[in-house]
Amino acid sequence: MLHSFLEHASVFVFPLVFGLNLHWASSRLYELELLWLMALAIPLGVVGGDLVSGIVHWAADTYGSEDMPVIGPSLVKPFRLHHVYPRDICTHGLVETIGNVCILAVPVLALCLYLLWLIPESGLLAFSVVSFTMVTAATVATNQFHKWAHQEHPSSLARWLQRKRLVLEPEHHKRHHTQPFNVNYCITNGWLNPLLNKLQFFRRLEATLGFFGIQKAKAKDTRVRDH
Ligand SMILES: [Zn+2]
Ligand SMILES: [Zn+2]
Hints:
0% strand; single chain; globular
């Protein structure tokens, strides 16, 4: 019950703290005659959100197990179930889709507001807050964009955004759901996937973690894919 309350409350509060941060930080940049930095901060934040989606998704696909405390049921299990029942995500309502991420995003954005209040003259802070606010917005929107990519008949707005590649494009995402299941982890808009695939970014990360003794989850764990 508490979780459900938190989900609903944070879905309601998120747009408020998002808007306040953006308004306050952009006004500060305007006062400092640095408003042009918004043109850099916004795309940077969106790309940052795509990277966060890729790293979280890859980690949940590759490490840990469904019975770990907290992140097991909230993160690992949903991603692994998604590979078995990809269309299940389409049955989720808005709060179920974005609620958990909003619970994390709201306190972080509240902290950004506090920092803006604490350090009123910093252009660097204002720039960072705009970028970071966009990271959180992209991260909150990720599951919704992912859901659209699996819908048989997404809305015309969703289709338009997909065609413009502003959000995750279904054919692009399908590669993640195809053997060997270990590419295209980014699911906000997937902009970073070609680069990360080319760099073998996640394979290198797995090798590095393996060097430090952190092993991938084995296929014996239910629904884990053995890469
Ligand atoms: Zn996956
Ligand atoms: Zn998917």
